[in-house]
Write a structure and sequence with these properties.
- By secondary structure, this protein is an alpha/beta fold.
- The chain is built from nine helices and eight strands.
- Nickel (II) ion binds next to loops.
């Protein structure tokens, strides 16, 4: 069995002490593809560096809605430059987050739209971060972009209506450790996603699944996410590992 962690942050400071060692362990435990996601210029550069260093790591580059304070819209040009590297597989994470930032919604929308346009020009998918901003995110996807544009809802909110609409638009849905949390009710949301649109991720070092919630997350735990989905879909873990591997390769064009 092999696993594809479709979204992790090995560019995060929490890996400074043991990055190489951790990445080596992960690969040895059958997580044989990882996408390392950028969220601002510095972390996007780092993601690209890691993708050059490790065959099995790919990169996404982008400016997240929580990283736009003090950033100019022209800085998206630096993301465009980074996206020229051949292991960059998507523009992201980008999107809207009204949970952490309510004050700058217009600025968030401007960065989101500008980066969707960039992805369209480069023929790359987008990786969407959406938190407490479902209506505006769907409005932008439905009305302001090329209808051929595709992408991923990363660490997708367990919101059945959002998932329904996202799937209708041809987007992939990526689930993370939060589906294993004791208070989570993921069944309805997961049932809503067709098997050819499901992805698994860890969002490491964050969102560690049960039963390891108090520890730092790494990609080995993607198996726990896969397991939960297998349980809900009523199929084997092997099937989910294979399906999600193929789906990730498909959307990232690997
Ligand atoms: Ni992330």
């Amino acid at each position: 069995m092999e696993f594809f962690d479709s979204h992790a942050h090995y560019n995060d400071d929490q890996f400074n002490q043991d990055r190489e060692e951790t990445i080596t362990k992960i690969f040895a435990e059958n997580v044989t593809k990882i996408t390392c996601a950028g969220y601002n210029i510095k972390s996007s550069e780092f993601a690209v560096r890691l993708s050059k260093q490790y065959d099995f790591i790919y990169a996404t580059v982008g400016i997240s809605p929580n990283d736009i304070t003090g950033v100019k819209i022209e800085d998206v040009n630096k993301i465009a430059e980074l996206a020229q590297n051949n292991k960059v597989v998507a523009i992201g994470e980008i999107g809207l987050d009204y949970y952490w930032n309510k004050e700058n919604q217009e600025q968030q929308k401007a960065f989101f739209i500008r980066q969707i346009e960039l992805a369209d020009t480069l023929n790359l998918p987008i990786v969407i971060h959406c938190r407490d901003a479902v209506m505006d995110t769907l409005d932008i996807l439905k009305n302001q972009i090329n209808p051929k544009q595709r992408g991923i809802f990363h660490c997708c909110m367990l919101n059945k209506e959002l998932i329904k609409e996202a799937v209708k638009l041809g987007f992939y849905i990526s689930f993370s450790g939060n589906i294993t949390f004791k208070n989570a009710k993921p069944k309805e949301a997961i049932e809503e996603v067709p098997i050819d649109k499901i992805l698994i991720e860890t969002d490491s070092p964050y969102l560690t699944p049960e039963p390891f919630r108090s520890c730092r997350n790494d990609s080995r735990n993607v198996k726990l996410v896969a397991n939960k989905i297998a349980e809900i879909k009523g199929v084997s873990l092997a099937e989910i590992s294979q399906l999600t591997y193929q789906n990730a390769k498909q959307i990232y064009k690997i």
